From TrEMBL:
Keywords: Hydrolase, Metal-binding. Residues 26-201 form the NodB homology domain. PANTHER family: CHITIN DEACETYLASE 1-RELATED, GLYCOSYL TRANSFERASE-RELATED. GO terms for cellular component: membrane. One of its GO terms (molecular function) is metal ion binding. One of its GO terms (biological process) is carbohydrate metabolic process. This is Polysaccharide deacetylase family protein.
């Protein structure tokens, strides 16, 4: 079962984390996981510029290390950078010590205390220790499924237009796999919601 719009009761699992921004103003929060990625990141930045849209990029440490110029471009365009771990570890399948070390290693290349767990999965102990270390965990309220190539992109667009609401944190992916769908989905989201008077902002700190 694919859940596009995450239910509010799920937020109780990690009440100190951010799942969405409570606002009645027409604002949306685009986020991009797994980058930076050559060519794709540049394409995303170009699309965002057309709408004066700001976003938050949750970058993998290994990619941030390999592509420092792309990291500089993200920051130069006024976007926010978040930590998405060094090697995209699944917290629930990783030991706490190894998982935290992976996050800390990524922090050397992302220089941020905003953290999004890969797959949205981490143990309560990991979450609590990250909080003590000064990290703010960011989940999401809308998952685009741009990475799921079994879903027709037309359905992804339909679901986005139907279910995204003010204050939503939206997950897209800065990766080669997701680009097949994201290159259609992102322009549709930007155009549709801009015409409805929405602004796109980075997650407030």
């Amino acid at each position: 079962m694919r859940i596009f719009k995450y239910p509010k009761w799920l937020r109780r699992l990690y009440p100190d984390s951010i799942w969405g921004i409570f606002t009645s103003n027409p604002i949306l929060y685009l986020t991009f996981d797994d980058g930076p990625c050559p060519e794709i990141t540049d394409w995303i930045l170009q699309e965002l510029r057309q709408y004066n849209a700001k976003a938050t990029f949750f970058c993998l440490g290994k990619n941030s290390k390999n592509y420092p110029l792309l990291m500089s471009k993200i920051i130069a365009d006024g976007h926010l950078v978040g930590n998405h771990s060094m090697r995209h570890l699944n917290g629930r399948k990783s030991g706490t010590k190894a998982f935290l070390a992976d996050v800390e290693e990524a922090a050397r290349y992302t220089s941020t205390t905003l953290f999004r767990p890969p797959y949205g999965k981490l143990k309560f102990k990991q979450h609590n220790l990250l909080k003590k270390a000064g990290y703010q965990t960011i989940f999401w309220s809308y998952l685009s499924y741009d990475f799921d190539l079994k879903i027709p992109v037309e359905k992804l667009v339909e679901q986005a237009k139907k279910k995204i609401k003010a204050g939503d944190i939206i997950v897209l992916h800065d990766s080669e796999k997701a680009f097949v769908n994201m290159r259609v989905l992102l322009p549709e989201i930007l155009t549709y919601f801009s015409e409805k008077g929405f602004q796109f902002k980075a997650i407030p700190r």
